[in-house]
């Protein structure tokens, strides 16, 4: 998928480059605009590693193994667990939580367990990343719209909280009639709730300190958000590991994780470099104006524009286009509208539209990973989560519309 997209971006980008009459020797300079994103992805595994070295993931996952007698209660707990962990360790949390649920639901019918896992984990994943400073879609949006992350934070957190609450209550009611019998005898396990709450509090305290540090560094050195997060992650992770007295564990886990993740970044290298070349070349031609016309034509109807952004994400995800590629084109098209429409509204829909696809993108990383972890058809996962994705996007559009 990434190879096909990269080839398309390079071929079209080269055509635009030649059309604009630019010298061939300057081509490398037109591939550098997305380098900060690659740097961001390169250091991100260290934040994941410090959480794992502190064993926060294992302690919080114990929530799912105690005093549960029906799937309704388990849904709320598994969603909450996935939500907390995904805020810090992203895809690693998704895989880890799905494996725990798969083991615990081994006695259930496969159709029920598949539906339960694909709904509870993917939905929580999409909601947790809506406000996470370590989510690349959020970082791209902050820099593209020129709006401070702190401006987005309360609105995106409110958005996340509202949908998480509604989905938990609805799904609890739906799954409640189904009794739960853990394959490992989960209902008899004793877990100290106080210890788990302490772990959650420590994570939230660390996240607050991280956000304060990122904002302070960005403001003091006048850096964009992506670069600020990139520069802060490594020293913050090392400092956190030292404070927890988990230095050796952190280094062992971090070095191994970093090597694996960095050596498997080729997909994003192909995507980001080709996307940068395409976007930079497009900006040198008048064709950008033609792409902007549908959006500019509806400039007097902001709601139509917000819906158009949302549906663009959904359509592109259905044909295998990664949301980062979609947002890469949209952020080149939308700037003229910032003077007519509140950029906060556009930014909210850019974030919610992209993350909604995490639950339904048949060829996307999250759906594919869930399909592999649970041995189920990815199209079935898409079908099960489509109502949620549409609701997710609709609430994002509504919130953006109310902030116009």
From TrEMBL:
The keyword Membrane applies. Coiled coil: none annotated. Keywords: Membrane, Transmembrane, Transmembrane helix. The keyword Aminoacyl-tRNA synthetase does not apply. Signal peptide: none annotated. The chain crosses the membrane at residues 6-22, 29-47, 80-101, 122-140, 152-170, 196-217, 223-243, 264-283, 303-331, 343-366, 386-403. It comes from Alkalihalobacterium chitinilyticum. It comes from the Bacteria. This is Uncharacterized protein.
